[in-house]
Each structure stands twice: as structure tokens, then as C-alpha cells.
Amino acid sequence: MFEGLGLLAGGIAHFLTPVSLFNIAWATLLGIVIGALPGLTATMGVALLVTLTYKMPPDQAILCLMCLYSGAIYGGSRTAILLAIPGTPASAATTLDGHPLALQGKAGLAMGLATTSSTLGTIVGIVALALIAPLLAEAALKFGSYEFFWLALFGVVISGQLTAMDDPLKGYIAGIVGLLVAMVGMETLHAYQRFTFGISALGGGVDLIPAMVGAFGLAEILGVMKRTVHARIVSSADRVVPRLGEVVKYWRTTLRSGIIGTFVGIVPGVGEDVGAWASYAAAKRSSKEADQFGKGSQEGLIAAETGNSAVVPGAMIPTLTLALPGSAAAAVLIAAMFIHGIRPGPLLMVENPQFLYQIVAILLFSTLAILVFGLSLTRPLLTVLAVPRERLMAVVYVLCVVGSFAITQRMFDVYVMLTFGMVGFILREMKYPMAPLVLGIILGDLLDLNLRRGLLLTNGDPTPFFTRPISAVICLIIVSTILMSIPAVSKRVRALFTRDRAGGSPA
Amino acid sequence: MSQETGGADAALPQPGDDRAAGAMVRADLVAAIVFIVLGAAILYASWTMPRLEVRRIHPMTVPGLVPGLLSFALVVCGGILAWRSVRAPAPGGWQSLREAVLSREAVRALVVAALALVYTLGLVGTLPFWAATAVFVFAFVLVFEVWLAEPRKSWRTSLPWAMGLAVVTAAAVTLVFERAFLVRLP
């Protein structure tokens, strides 16, 4: 425990240099701007920034990427409140109460509360990260091939289930397609090249960064440019800095939303949008003023913003300890860590324990920066919202091309970006979620290697996959998740429970 | 089965929702067929993939094992999607799908895609990167502000913006990446 505090102090001290503070400031501000601009998402921002931080030292590069990530998740709230358009999917729930508040002439209050809630949510998540991650990493040291196979499968299944709320089947399909994409190229057990069709560039497989730039960059550009509607910015005249009373009035909601957000973050591949919706729904269910939700409830706004911000540190828990990305943007972070020679996974706490606490320190710094920028830069951020998308998107596409080219310097990656952008756009239009697809690409290798390595160790006998305790538990969760997503099954199970309750016998 | 999905947690009904839902049901069928064909092709490729018997590897660890399992899962999911889509009532579904594909929105997306393709596959590589970028940004702004905008802007107001942005973007991207970050550009 005290060792942890010492490492945390070390992490904070590590970044108390002028260069680091400068990086924190610009990266967080850039993140807020990217988040505020509709059509630019956190994932896309992180994926594009990987290129720019390529030549930096590893700690500074990760610092910039993390600050941009949390800044962007916060920045989306600005647009949600003033334009009724979520700046990133994470702020969709913020729109419900933030915009009505703005229409009532309380735009300043809404922006202020969104800022303080984001900060508090991040802090709840940071505490959880510092406490849970070391324990999880220690437990994960006992994991073998069998467990990692199930974990990879679990990540894709749960992400497919939860990111496509109304239609898990499409989530599963997206996940399977992602896993199949990961099958392209050299496999690691026997060094056989699969599905390369004689194209040498395919031998190394499909890189995650260009694929992400396509699926979250080009696809987003296509989606934004498709629409012709223009939104009107609501003007704000009231004070932005909220009173202490307004912030602490709903402390229960803040704490609950922070915990829900963190938990959603831990679940692999389930991101900020789900965190916001889940805590919004929970707040509405337990609120005394539930009828105010959707009409400008401060509690609803607090719940949504706390929930989405707490996901960021929460997502870092499986990302760092299991190399299982907790959100789509975390998947890019994993790719970036590999580029910079940092290997996330159970061994991280053994090889490089200070790194976890550096991440904690980074999140602390970035949330402070968000608090300062969010409460002070109201006017400049308004001008950002007025940038016409016709001009913005042209520049963003140029950055997509450069971003996917620059890392390995080959045109092949640009073609990968194009393909993923076009196919990703069509899939999105048909309501297939992108998160499981991305998770599939990053977890495909893990799944393939660990399944076959496990089978090799047992000479082809699959029983350990089902009999080892942790394996059995994860396997059961996967099976029940899939079964519950079949409407006929879930209806019968629910009927079973309600009948029990009606009959008075405990289940 | 599919009737259940729209139950308790359905979003607010809006005019046009029925048509969009009908189009989606038919789009699902098309997508399902694509997934089934894709899955079957990968399944065949995985089955016929070399089993490396010469190297005496264990038959349960052949390279085609996981792609085979995954493609089988894809075929199954595609099958369920197709079955669900065929059973769901979608009056006028094909008609609304055709309208959606030919709508103004789709045209706008297609124009973006076409501009992106011409820029990436045609201009980059034949022209210097800065020139290709300038042409792309210029064309993009003009097309969407003058030709496809609602209401249209007059080309007199857009032209200076388009030219200015093209020059600034081309110069900034080239300078920032080649000079500051020492990245070679395509």
C-alpha cells in the first residue's frame, strides 16, 4: 500500500518538469477541441496523434496521448450542451439534459457542472485504477494460455453484446469480422502466412493504427458530410464557475456514476458512451426528481458527465494489466505502447511498476488541466464550434492520409485506411458497432495463439479449457452472455424470475 | 424473434421510422448474404490451408484451425441474420432501401468517397504531396460549399476560402511533418 503511494508520488514528480507540463497543457487543450468538434472523436484523435508523437520519448508520447484522450471525452460535452449534437458519442447522454438547460438560459451552469463532474468522475476512476490494477495484475500472473484464450473471446463477445444495445447479433458479427481480419498475415506458432494471396505487404498483417484511422476517421467524415442539417449555437450569458453547493448537492449521484463508469471502463471494449448511458439510467431510476430528467435536470447532466469521464481511467485497468483494451481509444493506446516499446500485460507490474503510477499521475494532471481550461476558456471554445465542417473535414482527411502513412512509411497502410473507412462507413450505416471490430483486430492474435498453444501443451486435449477454475468461470460468463442475447431465452429466464418473485420463493 | 426486439426499450417513434426499419430489414438480408458467402469462402480456404504434415505439427494446432472456427461462426451469424430478416415484415422494404441508397445523403457520401479516392489513389504519388493536398482541399471545399450545400454559397465567397485553406493546409502539413517531425510524406 505505502509502496504504491511512494510510486505514485514518484509518478507525479516525474511529470513536474516544464516540458511535461507544456505537453499536458497542449495535448489536453487539443483533446478538448477535438472532442468539441462534431465528427472528430477521441479515438480518431488518439489514432492521428500517434503519428505526431512517434519521435517523442515513450513517457512523453503516452502522456500526450492520454491527455488528448481524456480531454476529448470531456470536450464533447460542450457541443452537446450548446448545439444539442454530441461532440463525441460519449456525450450523447449529456445532450438530453445539457441542451434543455442551455435553452433555459443556464448554458454557463451546464458547462460548469459538466466540467466539475468530469473532474470528479475521473478522480473516482483514478482511485479505482490505483487500487485495482496492481491486484488484477498479480492475479493475472497465474493466467495461462487457457485463460488468455477465454479472455480474448470474452472481450469480443461482451463488447459485441454491450455496444450494440438493441441488436447483439450485429455486435457479434462485427467482432467476428475483426477477429478474421487479425488472421491475415504471419501466424506466430508455425510462422505460416495466412490469407496473404501472394501480396508481401499482407505478410505482416493489418496494422491497427491505419485500420482505426479508417474506421474512426474516414468513416466519420463520410457520416458527417452525409448530413445537410446545420445546428444553431445557443448563446450563454450566465456564470460558468458553479457554486460549491451545486456541485456537492448530488454527491450520491456523482459517486454512483463514477463507480458505474469505472466498472463499464473495466469491461473490455465497452467505452465512454455506454458508461454515460448506464450511469444516466441508474441516476434516473433512483432520483427523487426523475420527472425532470430530459427536461434540464442538473442531476442527469452530472450523471452522464461523471459516467463517461470515469470510463477513461477504468478502461486503463484491463488495458495495462491484461493488454485487453477497455475502450476503442485504449486499443490505439495499446498499439502506441507497443510502438514505444512498452508491453502492457500481467508482466508490466513486474518489469515496469512505475509505469502504472505514471499513468495515474498523467490522468490526475489531465483532469486538473480540464478543470482549468473548462472553466476559463468559454469564449475561445465557442469559436471552435463555429468552424464549418466543409472546411474542417477536408483537412481532417489529409491528416488521415498522412497519419496512416507516416508510421511505417508505406502506401499499403493508406489503402488499408481507405478500405476500412469505406467498409466501416457502410457497416455503421447498417448499425454495426465499430468497437467489437477493433477489439477483434487487436485480440485476434491473442485468441489464435493461446488456443493453439494450449492445445499443443495438452497434446490436443481441450479439457483444461473447461476444467481450470478461472477458465471455467470466464467460459460460463461467455456462454450465458450469448444465451441471454437470444430473445427467446432471455424472455424465459426473466419469466422464471418474475414467477419466483410472485410466488414468494427466493430464487 | 425479431418482433421482441422493438418492445420495451424502443426509441421514440418518429415519422419515417417504419420506412427506415423496413429498409434496414432488407439491408440486413443483403449484408447477411455477403457474410455467409464471405464466411463460406474463408471456411473453404481454412479447410484447404496446408496442414504442415511435413513438419509433424500436432493436427489440433494447424494454421487453419482458428480461421475455420471463426468463419463457421460468421456463417452461423449470417444465417441467423438472414433468417430473421426474411421473417420480419417489411412492407415496401426494398423500395425504401432503394430510395435510401439513391438519396441525397448517399450522393453526398459518395462524392466524399470519390474525392478521397481520386486524391489518395490518383493524385498522391503522381503529384508532389503538397500539390495533391492543395488540389484536394480546394476541390472538397468548393464542392461542398457551392455545389452540394443547402443553401448554396456563391462561389465568390467560397473561392477565396477554398484557395486560402488549400494553400495553408498544404504548407502546414508539409512543413510540420517533414521539418518538425521528420516524417517522409508520400
UniProtKB/TrEMBL annotation, chain A:
Keywords: Membrane, Transmembrane, Transmembrane helix
DUF112 domain segment(s): 22-439
One Pfam family this sequence matches: TctA
InterPro entries: DUF112_TM (IPR002823)
Transmembrane parts of this sequence: 24-50, 62-87, 107-136, 148-165, 171-192, 199-219, 322-343, 355-375, 395-420, 469-489
Keyword DNA repair: no
Record's protein name: Transporter
Lineage: Bacteria, Pseudomonadati, Pseudomonadota, Alphaproteobacteria, Hyphomicrobiales
From TrEMBL, chain B:
Transmembrane segments: 29-47, 67-86, 106-124, 130-149, 161-182
Domain DUF1468: 30-186
Transcription regulation recorded as keyword: no
The name this protein goes by in its record: DUF1468 domain-containing protein
Keyword line: Membrane, Transmembrane, Transmembrane helix
Pfam family name, one: TctB
